[in-house]
Amino acid sequence: MRTELAKQPVDATTTSAWADLSRLSGDLEPDLRGWFESDPARAERFAFQAADLYVDLSKNLLTDDVLAALVDLAGQTGVAERRDAMFSGEHINPTEDRAVLHTALRRPAGTAPALHVDGQDVDADVRAELAKVYGFAEKVRSGEWTGVTGEKVRTIVNIGIGGSDLGPVMAYEALEPYVAEGLECRFVSNIDPTDVAQKTADLDPATTLFIVASKTFGTLETLTNARLARDWLWRSLVAAGAIEDTDEGRAGAVAKHFVAVSTALDKVAAFGIDTENAFGFWDWVGGRYSMDSAIGTSLAIAIGPERFEELLSGFHAMDEHFRTAPLERNVPVLMGLLNVWYTNFRDAHTHAVLPYAQQLHRFPAYLQQLTMESNGKSVRWDGSPVTADTGEVFWGEPGTNGQHAFYQLIHQGTRLIPADFIAVAQPAYGLTDPVGDGKAVAPGADVHGLFLANFFAQTKALAFGRTADEVRAEGTPEELVSARVFSGNRPTTSILAPALTPSVLGQLVALYEHITFVQGVVWGIDSFDQWGVELGKKLALEIAPAVAGDEAALAAQDASTAALIARYRTLRP
């Protein structure tokens, strides 16, 4: 299904919209105070609803002319056309000649017309695999699935890395209030042996289930950790007298305590896992877009199939908004275009994501892979060099922790750092302060309300700042006035949801998936390959013998690498 669409990126820098944006940026003197004062409707005009998310763009460095030019840029670079090609299953990942169909993972059962791609009934394939995952999840949750001693599983350890780890662990932490009582998930990803050692140190092997998540069942880190976990299981069960220290005993333990998410069934079987307990997905699902596939098996067990379906429905709701809303009111389109505006016209290099919801504490880390692995490219999808800067460094921490760490730089530093603030109205744990502080916090105060007062205050302070005259009016000594001035005009987007439900989490993830897509289209890059991660992995395999003591391999290294390896070997003889 290769098409001309997949072969011919538009050079955004040659469009009339790009020229308009360059001119507008050159003339722009940001004045959020003045803009709000002269335009009482600004907050309403630049606020949008996408599924359950209320998204306020009004505190961005955005005017009607800039917005119009950005929408024109989307039109002139073919954002809508490429979006439609993605949803229909065209091969918009040209370097791997693949369709890009993570959106198919969350299509409701019975959606018409059915989606057929490359001769496959995608809807039927997805639903069949989901049914298999759900059936297994119910067995674990009910206690029908047991370990070798007949005891119910109490801990699931997901072993993966990258997309096979970041999505599931983020979602598990976010949806912790929905986790079944008596179940716990842990996640092992780092090849540093400390990770697997710490995650298994206090576990009961008889009640532990490992999920090895690797599409190819060949990822170095994942398979190394899986072998370490298997060895821990064998040793612990033998020590407890639960199994005999024989090949048969060990094989039986793996069959009851390990399952896989992989399509490489031969390798799964060679590891000792029953292939009936292997859950698959497809080459049209990139790892960083896979948390709503079988990669989410640990989550499906933890929160149950019904809640997992709610997660999928949230993804789909945002998909439908992205697919159908006009560009000028399409939230993922507008947020993606704003990122292009800041990156290419306002000299921003980073982007902060600041969730005012402790359960989303892993969300910025999740977005780092989604955004930077997708759009950290220097060539376009036809192999030609990019014609503009691409990508931003995404980072962040939950509020209010970040306020006491790095907000100083955002407020008063010399760099422009656009920031997304995310909050929910209904907390998972609604607590009140019984005593208060005798000042701002009254006895019985709603702590979540106090928390969100910070959410509202930070975006206000970043937008409007504080002038020298306002600082003087507070009685500040003149010699300290300049230090206490806040320039304002620091752009933020505010995202407010009713509560952090499975559906809302799905909406948030899909929102950023589509934001990333929009930026990739404008820049003409393939957001769905990741060749940049391959070279380091290849070199690690070549260097490993030198680290282990192979003198010929050591001699083959450059001087710096050889010296570092030699020093390591002296420190760890």
UniProtKB/TrEMBL annotation:
| UniProtKB keywords | Cytoplasm, Gluconeogenesis, Glycolysis, Isomerase
Q: Enzyme class, one word?
A: isomerase
- Xref: Pfam families: PGI
* Pathway assigned in UniProt: Carbohydrate degradation; glycolysis; D-glyceraldehyde 3-phosphate and glycerone phosphate from D-glucose: step 2/4; Carbohydrate biosynthesis; gluconeogenesis
List the active site: 373 (proton donor), 404, 537
Question: Which GO biological process entries does UniProt record here?
Answer: gluconeogenesis; glucose 6-phosphate metabolic process; glycolytic process
UniProt catalytic activity:
alpha-D-glucose 6-phosphate = beta-D-fructose 6-phosphate
Which EC number(s) are documented for this chain? 5.3.1.9
Question: Per its record, what are the GO molecular function terms?
Answer: carbohydrate derivative binding; glucose-6-phosphate isomerase activity; monosaccharide binding
Q: Which NCBIfam families match?
A: PRK00179.1
Q: What does this protein do?
A: Catalyzes the reversible isomerization of glucose-6-phosphate to fructose-6-phosphate.
Q: What is the similarity comment for this entry? A: Belongs to the GPI family.
The protein here is known as: Glucose-6-phosphate isomerase
- Which source organism does the UniProt entry give? Myceligenerans xiligouense
Q: What is the lineage of its organism?
A: Bacteria, Bacillati, Actinomycetota, Actinomycetes, Micrococcales
Gene for this protein? pgi
